[in-house]
Design brief:
By secondary structure, the protein is mainly beta. It is built from one helix and 19 strands. Strands 2, 5, 6, 9, 10, 11, 15, 16, 18 and 19 form a ten-stranded mixed β-sheet that branches. Strands 1, 3, 4, 7 and 8 form a five-stranded antiparallel β-sheet that branches.
């Protein structure tokens, strides 16, 4: 009985989705007083607000040619990261995080999620639907800033630049509101892309929403010498008001 109980508890700890959480203090800069963007980068279960240790990633703007310095901190009792960036010019800024792959023993696989965050500034909104060129990427088909709760968000999943059909997209709210899910099944919502790689989801609450399109591809070696599959995640974070 104790063994069965342990298995059930262990499964419940890992049943819900991991998200590389990438948030900012603003998604739309309208004046110079708001132009200092602060980033919060962590590896957590966003709805349940439970954390995991995150080794130092890399933070980029628009391409891997421009990196941004990170500072170590703690979030939910685990190592996480902070960053700052001063926006001085009008434009659409596309930030993304390249993590070190995380090995999940319970699932016997590596997890490598690359989240994207799009910020507009000083009234210029052109180009928010253009890809950065990542191997796994979500292109927003709904303007990803200035959103309300209740809005329908649509995105297109690209794999090597091509539309990825029939891909599962996990969705979670960053639950800083103390909301309680009716059951474990309600914690992580799941939708799938259509033949054109497009998914849709109605954000029914204000706050940050994470969308993670998961594509298993490739293998990496763990310290035990064995090779394990890699869960590659194309992520985007958007905020509903």
């Amino acid at each position: 009985m104790k063994k069965i109980l342990f298995i059930v508890v262990a499964f419940s700890l890992y049943a819900n989705a991991h998200f590389l959480t990438f948030l900012s203090n603003s998604d739309n800069v309208s004046n110079k007083n708001e132009s200092n963007i602060k980033f919060d980068i962590s590896f957590i279960h966003p709805f349940e607000q439970s954390g995991m240790t995150m080794e130092k990633p890399k933070l980029y703007l628009n391409s891997t040619k421009k990196s941004i310095d990170l500072k170590e901190t703690k979030k939910l009792e685990h190592k996480s990261w902070l960053a700052d960036y001063k926006i001085n010019m009008p434009g659409v800024y596309k930030f993304f995080v390249q993590p070190q792959p995380y090995f999940e023993p319970a699932e016997e696989k590596f997890i490598s999620h690359v989240p994207k965050l799009i910020i507009s500034s000083f009234g210029l909104e052109d180009g928010w639907d253009e890809p950065i060129g990542l191997k796994y990427e979500i292109i927003p088909m709904t303007k990803p800033f200035g959103l309300y709760s209740g809005n329908l968000f649509q995105g297109k999943v690209l794999h090597n630049g091509k539309a990825a059909a029939n891909v599962e997209v996990e969705v979670e709210l960053y639950n800083e509101f103390g909301l309680k899910a009716p059951s474990d099944a309600h914690v992580t919502q799941v939708v799938k892309t259509d033949d054109n790689g497009v998914f849709s989801f109605v954000m029914n609450h204000k706050g940050w929403w994470g969308f993670a399109a998961l594509i298993e591809e490739g293998e990496l070696k763990y310290k035990d010498g064995k090779s394990y599959p890699v869960e590659n995640g194309a992520l985007i974070w958007v905020k509903a008001y």
